[in-house]
Write a structure and sequence with these properties.
Distance between the termini: 98 Å
Largest sheet: 6 strands, antiparallel, barrel
Order of helices and strands: HHHHEEEEEEEEEEEEEEH
Structural class: alpha+beta
Helix content: 25-40%
CATH architecture of one domain: Beta Barrel
Strand content: 25-35%
CATH superfamily of one domain: Rod shape-determining protein MreC, domain 2
Length: 278
Amino acid sequence: MRNLLIFISKYNAFFLFVIFEIISLVIMVNYNSFQKATYIESSNEITGAAYDKVGQVRGYLSLGTVNDSLARENARLRNLLKSSFYLDTLQKKNIVDSIYKQQYSYIVAKVINNSVNHRNNYITINRGSKDGIAKDMGVICGSGVVGIVVNTTDHLANIRSVLHKDTRISAMLADTKDIGNFLWSDNLDPHSGLLVDVANNVKPRMGEWVVTSNLSSLYPAGIPIGRVSSLQSKEGGIFLNMDIKMAVDYSKLEYVYVINNRMALEQTQVETGRKKDD
């Protein structure tokens, strides 16, 4: 306290000058309309700029909550898509919504671990069996196909990425509906893959979309996989292979949607029984 008093007494002239300067400014602003208007305008600009910066910081800090909310809303909207329903009737005329039953539902999840630079890549998400996720469910994101669930715990799930040597997806050309199989290319490029075993009489266009086919029990038909970037003739000339530029940037995955196909088990049972008969 003594040191503070010594400091004030030493610089008392400076402090008096500051006090008188402030009093003068207050008097000038209060009793002169021009200076008062200028002060108010300047202070409003400064205050507005400060509030804007604070708002930007708050907006940035709340991005996680906003993203979670948007992802949940996207999952809800996907559940309402007509491609998520199947037609439970033989009637072909005067179809109304009441004859559609939901086949696909979507569970939103956040990516918490991911790899893209190995021959076999996996993705970990923050949802598990307690959230309704089970092995062999398909996984997509807003841009296209992501992979397949391979195992789960109560609260987490592991996904075999499309970027995996064992991934094989039933696919088709979006325009002609010609069927093939999508594989990840051997050159380990996370942006390219292959559409193989397409009939050689097909005439695809460069840039044509490749999407999931209606032969898969994992995904609804029409989910993007990528675009045709070049053509290859398979040895023997029976089939045509195509290089595909993938639709998804797997290095930037944040949210995914796990697909619950309510008819998958029934389809698997039917197909398993057919194979036994063969």
